[in-house]
Design brief:
heterodimer; A: 146 residues; alpha/beta; Oxidized Rhodanese, domain 1; 5-stranded parallel beta sheet; 5 strands; B: alpha/beta; Glutaredoxin; 7 strands; 39% helix; globular; cytochrome c-type biogenesis (chain B); Thioredoxin_domain (chain B)
């Protein structure tokens, strides 16, 4: 009897660890969808024609030429995001950024990125901001608004 | 003989260069806290130097920063306890510098926590010149300044902050 309980407990533990592992991996983006800041800065600076559409979904737009939609955690702003993207080619590269804090801790990223995926943007990217937009963008001298 | 001399010369040149860079604006204990002068939500300019004579906690925060917001009730408790002077003439003052970008969000957070200490912001988010002056790399971040305007502690939180404030007000 005791053995059985132990076995049962072990299986439960195993199941639990598998589900938590699975949960950890369930971010809406893949590694390939994370764009390094240097790459975006190069794309802005290069006068090529295939410039991505850059959208701020954080507290304020900082990156040169980016569209300011506002914090993605607010439903109203997801509506604005929809409007901004209404006539955009689904194949166009769209880069969203937050910048308040390390990107994976920003509450605006997930709702906005999920929306991009749902709308069918196949080249949706998320700017990889390890600390914040000051340290990872402004301090590096990358192009800013105004 | 020639070689050691050139190496020494090179080291001197290198260290001078390094120093010049580091001195640009160093935020560390013992240096004068750089002046900040920004508007309150009502548009009144309040400067850091106007709070001289008090123990001043400069709190860098924003309504969009969850850990900063979580800290506000704690700061309020600290303020309520130590804003009345323990010893004659010396009390705690808090100078809240917000990196908010939208005024309504900033005002809402101030109201929510019923913050009574001076709150200032240029509403420029991470583009704020203050973020550059104070070499901010993330928030929440704070700087404790003594009555003469010198930095006496950096980035203390929780019990460590309270112990430091109490000790700072009790001495002399």
């Amino acid at each position: 009897m005791k053995n059985r309980i132990q076995q049962f407990g072990f299986i439960l533990l195993l199941l639990f660890s598998i589900t938590t592992q699975a949960q950890e991996k369930q971010e809406p983006w893949t590694d390939a969808q994370l764009m390094p800041t240097q790459e975006l800065a190069d794309k802005i600076n290069n006068s090529g024609k295939d410039k991505p559409l850059i959208i701020n979904i954080g507290p304020q737009s900082v990156i040169k030429g980016s569209v300011d939609v506002g914090p993605g955690k607010e439903k109203e702003n997801i509506g604005k995001l929809d409007k901004t993207l209404a006539k955009v080619d689904k194949k166009r590269e769209v880069v969203i950024y937050c910048g308040c804090c390390p990107f994976d801790r920003c509450p605006n990223i997930r709702p906005a990125f999920n929306e991009l995926k749902e709308l069918g943007f196949v080249n949706a990217k998320l700017l990889n901001v390890p600390k914040n937009i000051k340290v990872d963008w402004i301090d590096k001298g990358y192009p800013v608004n105004q | 003989m020639k070689r050691p001399a050139s190496i020494i010369l090179m080291l001197i040149v290198l260290s001078c260069g390094y120093r010049a860079e580091a001195q640009e604006n160093e935020i560390k204990v013992g240096v004068m806290a750089p002046e900040i002068s920004l508007p309150t939500p009502q548009g009144k300019m309040v400067s850091l130097s106007s709070l001289r004579g008090n123990l001043v906690l400069i709190d860098f925060w924003a309504s969009w920063c969850a850990p900063c917001v979580e800290e506000q009730p704690e700061l309020k408790r600290l303020y309520d306890t130590y804003h009345q002077s323990i010893k004659k003439g010396k009390k705690l003052e808090i100078y809240g510098v917000s990196l908010d970008s939208k005024k309504p969000a900033w005002e809402k957070a101030i109201r929510r926590f019923d913050i009574k200490w001076p709150q200032v912001s240029d509403l420029k988010f991470w583009s704020s010149p203050v973020a550059k002056t104070y070499n901010l790399e993330g928030i929440p971040y704070n700087v404790v300044v003594d009555g003469d305007g010198y930095i006496i502690a950096l980035n203390l939180h929780g019990k460590e902050l309270e112990d430091f404030v109490r000790a700072g007000l009790e001495e002399k």
